[in-house]
Amino acid sequence: MPHLHIEYSPTLERHVDVRDICRAAWEVMTTCDLFPRAGIRVRAFAADHWIVADDHPDNDFLAMTLSVGSGRAQSDLKAAGDRLFAAVQQVLSEVLATPHFALSLEIREINAELSWKDTPIHARLSRQ
Question: 85: closest CA among 97, 72, 103?
Fold first, then answer.
């Protein structure tokens, strides 16, 4: 269960194609032995309402939350997070060069006993 939730200010779309961010993140996740391909989800949502820092009209943000199942070593999650963050930074290099952008990533570990799933995708991909 590596699910990446990306929330961003909709004005960011003036500077970058959010699909490129999703693709860069997905590529890192699919090349990481830590995550099963069948469990990977990358979703991006523009915030309906937002205020960033001093409410300057040029301020934009992109906040990522990666939810993973428990049982992985913290050092492995750190390494995966480093790769993921670097890939997204590369896509966002132009806006990161401005004084009006905030980028973040948080990894959250999900308790398996408090997580329900019904995912036939896993069975399909395990047959390949």
Answer: 103
Could you list the pLDDT tens digit for every one of the 128 residues in the chain?
A: 799 999 999 999 999 999 999 999 999 999 998 999 999 999 999 999 999 999 999 999 999 999 999 999 999 999 999 999 999 999 999 999 999 999 999 999 998 777 787 888 877 887 76
Q: Which of 45, 27, 24, 40 is nearest to 88 (CA)?
A: 24
CA 69 – CA 95 distance, rounded (Å): 32
Chain CA centroid to CA 119, Å: 20
Per the CB < 8 A criterion, the answer to whether 74 and 34 are in contact is: no
Query: What is the Cα–Cα distance from 66 to 36, expressed in whole angstroms?
Result: 14
Residues 101, 92 contacting (CB under 8 angstroms): yes
